[in-house]
Specification:
Length: about 110
């Protein structure tokens, strides 16, 4: 996970010809199965010696939301399982919660100094 993010970030940095990446904003859904603290630790370790060396990871959690496929009630919540609040049994069709992507990257350009 961390490797793929770092790959994306460093690719962007190279394309834009910037000297350093200062901040990376990530969106992670509650059901994406990504542990924020683990991800941050891995990222910092892997980023050493790259353009993202001093980059700060800002992680935005996206709560799981969806609609019940049986009664159509909107369901939302945290945790692994999303249950319909009305019938409790209906499978919920997820609208959000599985996101995992880089939202934005902030960089530093030495040429502007
Ligand atoms: Zn339901």
């Amino acid at each position: 996970m961390a490797i793929s993010i770092l790959g994306i970030v460093n690719d962007e940095a190279q394309k834009a010809q910037v000297s350093a990446v200062t901040q990376v904003r990530l969106c992670i859904g509650d059901l994406a199965g990504v542990e924020a603290t683990t991800l941050t630790a891995c990222f910092e370790m892997l980023a050493q010696g790259t353009a993202s060396d001093k980059a700060r990871l800002i992680i935005k959690r996206i709560p799981a939301t969806g609609t019940c496929t049986v009664c159509g009630t909107a369901a939302s919540g945290r945790g692994r399982m999303l249950k319909c609040p009305v019938c409790q049994t209906g499978p919920v069709k997820l609208a959000t919660g599985r996101e995992f992507y880089v939202e934005s990257i902030e960089v530093e350009n030495t040429l502007q100094r």
